[in-house]
Amino acid sequence: MKRLMTRTLIAAAVLTQMTGNVNAETVTPSTKTLPPLTTPNNATPPSLISGISLENMDDNVRAQDDFYTYVNGKWLKNTDIPADKSSWGSFNELAEKSLNQLHSIIDTETQKKDLPAGSIKQKIVDFYASYMDEVTLEKLGMTPLNPEFTRIDAIQNKKQLATLIAHLSTIDVGVPLELGIGQDAKDSTKVVAGVDQGGLGLPDRDYYLKDDEKLKTTREKYLAYIEKMLILSADATAKQHAADILALETEIAKIQWTKVENRDPVKTYNPMTLNKLKMLAPHFDWTRYLVDAELQGKTPYLVIGQPSYVKGFDRLLEKTPLDVWKVYFKWHVLNGFASQLSKPYVDERFSFYGTTLRGVPENELRWKRAVKTVEGEIGEGLGQLYVEQYFPAENKARMEKLVSNLITAYRQSINTLDWMSAGTKKEAQKKLDKLVVKIGYPNKWRNYDQLEIKKDQLVANIMRSSQFEYQRQINKLGKPVNREEWGMTPQTVNAYYNPSMNEIVFPAAILQPPFFHADADDAVNYGGIGAVIGHEISHGFDDQGSQFDEVGNLRNWWTAEDHKKFATKTKALISQYNAYSPVKGYHVNGELTLGENIADNSGLAIAYKAYQLSLGGKTAPVLDGLTGDQRLYFGWAQVWRSKTREAQQIVYLKSDPHSPAQFRGDGALANQPHFYDAFGVKSGDKMYLTPDQRVIMW
Ligand SMILES: [Zn+2]
């Protein structure tokens, strides 16, 4: 996804993360019966299968000690992560399936000789061809970047860096001031521009600042990588320049806020007019920046994410020589486009970002990288073709039913919460009433008519696509919010909640096994896609989402007392997850992952309640020797089967708001009272938490 979009979506996707909790007293099957989700109207009920992959189980592990490994142990033992992947599991398998489907779509279109010029199909075919045309790419070397280097060489003074930063934002090159367009946090009917910290080549500030062995080694290899790339690009003083770049990035890292600090929607909301910006950072030419970024007169203010960072950046701007800034920006251009240049650049870049940073032995085949690039740049165009071919219309209807069942369960659950007052409950219900649900694909597809794609210009295609997207974003300023828009393509195996829209979104590609089994009994589906739906709804009520109201405004709707109780629960959850360690010497960051852990715990709890409602007081059948409740928890645990290379796991621990798969699986279960009942978990078992230790929120 484009950098520019990131401002609008607070850590809300199910991946890069999920949970649940249950109130012991609420699950008495009750008033309302929900229809089973696997039986479409007027259809013969399918013969019931469990949907559980029993062949993956490891009977040598006790369910009560480590349920995730009990359910997935054989799979974990017998599965190798493919040589071109940093991790492998159910999400990756589906993502790979999507990739193959997109490839086949592109191949089919490529065979056709009569595509209308300028049509989206022709653009997809040409974009893909430009990636696959290695002969041209070898001939070009790094020359496609020459116009950018010339532009940087021509800079005479630091004032002009404002123009450069504005320009680089339009072609999606990482810069220290990252521009974003999105809904105003406190008035979701308004679209405004904002600026966040940015400009690092490594995944997190810790990689620059921490002295533990692994991070230090990575940093040294980053330095060597920069030098090699500069040598390739015929820089005569590569060694010195590489050292300058790392030193400057380290200074930038020092003034950056941590990822935990950046989770605070109040502290990161700082609207500033031009005058205020000039006071905050007098050495940066804001007037020129606003004009060159096409923001002048279109946004009432810039929302500054991290004021102390911008102030620190101003000091850096002043004290760092102009020549060092120029070398730094050239580096970010080169590094940003290296994967689309000739082979030596591609190989060096992969050697660092693939092998060193993430532990991946081999680069993906060129066609995979080509499809991913087309996907990243004009993904909705591709999505239109994907949906026509691979998304059965009945999936949408079933999913709608499921989502409405989950919302009903949520509504009932809120009413029964013993820790929340009636006033706050009313506000929470209001938020649930206004929740918008999007399933499968957008009602209205993006129009790419104005985008020019040429089959022998890979880098230029990417730059033009970025500029096209930039214009699309800028055009939103001052206009009513487009509520039809999607932040993910339909072929993405993921889902998200967007607090400013108060909406949950489920792309077509996640509606497949192991998340969603069309032919299986309900239990496994409630544990899979049901918990994913619950996860996304719960983001509206996690520690971040709960600070936004029913129309998507940052507004406190909690009584002080209720909020205090909620905070006690979040604190306990932070400690639970802090204790998990997937790599020796490294722990999960309970604060960074808090929102996602709340969503996992609550999502699973609500999915359980929705499942009970769907049974309407009847006992679920026993299938494969498992009760309905047991299958639901199996469904949950098998969704998270996944293996990750150690280096990649460290990147995730430092930068991903989601907990590692094993702890998403086990962590959420340990807080579900019904899980204890379903598998007879008792004091002394490794998963056992005393009732007081269990965190139950929604
Ligand atoms: Zn999430």
Structure description:
Helix 8 (213-232) runs antiparallel to helix 14 and helix 16 packs antiparallel against helix 17 (422-433). The strands form three sheets. A four-stranded mixed beta sheet has the order 2-3-5-4. It is an alpha/beta fold and 698 residues long. The chain has 25 helices and nine strands. The protein folds into two domains: 3-99 and 393-442 and 486-679, Collagenase (Catalytic Domain) (3-Layer(aba) Sandwich), CATH 3.40.390; 158-363, Neutral endopeptidase, domain 2 (Orthogonal Bundle), CATH 1.10.1380. It has helices at 67-78, 90-111, 120-132, 134-140, 146-153, 160-170, 206-209, 213-232, 238-255, 274-280, 286-292, 307-319, 322-337, 343-358, 366-390, 393-416, 422-433, 458-474, 522-539, 560-578, 594-615, 628-639, 646-655, 661-669, 673-679; strands at 87-89, 177-184, 187-197, 271-272, 302-304, 436-440, 496-498, 503-507, 642-644. Zinc ion (ZN) is lined by residues 12-14, 17, 535, 539, 596, 599.
Q: Topology, pairings included?
A:
Elements: H1 67-78, E1 87-89, H2 90-111, H3 120-132, H4 134-140, H5 146-153, H6 160-170, E2 177-184, E3 187-197, H7 206-209, H8 213-232, H9 238-255, E4 271-272, H10 274-280, H11 286-292, E5 302-304, H12 307-319, H13 322-337, H14 343-358, H15 366-390, H16 393-416, H17 422-433, E6 436-440, H18 458-474, E7 496-498, E8 503-507, H19 522-539, H20 560-578, H21 594-615, H22 628-639, E9 642-644, H23 646-655, H24 661-669, H25 673-679
Helix pairs in contact: 2-3, 2-15, 3-15, 5-13, 6-11, 8-9, 8-14, 9-12, 9-13, 16-17, 16-19, 16-21, 19-21, 19-22, 21-24
The structure holds zinc ion (ZN).
The site of zinc ion (ZN) has 8 residues, from α19 and α21.
